[in-house]
Every structure is written in structure tokens, then in C-alpha cells.
Design goal:
single chain; transmembrane; about 110 residues; transmembrane helix; 2 strands; mainly alpha; membrane; DUF4190 domain-containing protein; two-stranded parallel ribbon
Length: about 110
């Protein structure tokens, strides 16, 4: 009997639902990332990814979804980067708006 042959009583491999959830949350974080709302699903995805990874390793090949898990983690980090980029853009726009509408001269009107 070779190691690649399955025993007839072994269960069939199934897709890990947590890996699918990590992927879905990662995708949601990319979509909502520029609006700063992507941080919440990204954080949930990264927290769930740790637990899902442990389960995939412990299942010894009977849970599928490692690729989906890796993609979800990458998407979650992309969502966080997009949220940070959105925050930086908002800060720059706010500073420019403040500088433009501050108005007036730097000197009193009595100075030539």
C-alpha cells in the first residue's frame, strides 16, 4: 500500500468553511478599503485566518482551502493598505482645504 492510496474508511476531503469566510472578508475589505470601512472585515479576516490555518494543519489533508486562505489574507492586507491610503488622501485634502479657506494676509491691515 503506497502513501498516496486512501484507506476506504477515510473521510472525503471537504472545503474549509473558515477559509472561505476569510476569502470573503478579504474581498469585502478590498471593496470597502478606500472608504476606511475595510479595516473591520480585514481585521476579522486576519483573526479568523490564524484559527483556520491551525485547523487546516490539524486536519492532516482532510480540509481543503489553503490557497483560498492565502488569497484571503492577501486581500485583507490589501484592504488595510487601501484604508491607510484613503486616510492619507483625506488628510491631504483636509489640509489643503484648511489652507485655502484660512484666508486673509499674514500681516495687519496697517502694515504696508
Amino acid at each position: 500500500m503506497t502513501s498516496s492510496t486512501r484507506h476506504p474508511l477515510d473521510p472525503d476531503p471537504v472545503r474549509a468553511t473558515k477559509a472561505s469566510a476569510v476569502f470573503g472578508l478579504g474581498l469585502l475589505s478590498v471593496v470597502t478599503g478606500p472608504f476606511l470601512g475595510g479595516v473591520i472585515p480585514a481585521t476579522l479576516a486576519l483573526l479568523m485566518a490564524r484559527e483556520s490555518h491551525r485547523e487546516l494543519v490539524a486536519a492532516d489533508g482532510f480540509l481543503l482551502g489553503a490557497r483560498r486562505l492565502r488569497s484571503g489574507v492577501r486581500l485583507a492586507w490589501t484592504g488595510i493598505v487601501l484604508a491607510i491610503a484613503g486616510l492619507v488622501v483625506l488628510a491631504i485634502i483636509g489640509l489643503l482645504h484648511y489652507a485655502r479657506h484660512r484666508g486673509g494676509a499674514d500681516f495687519d491691515s496697517t502694515v504696508n
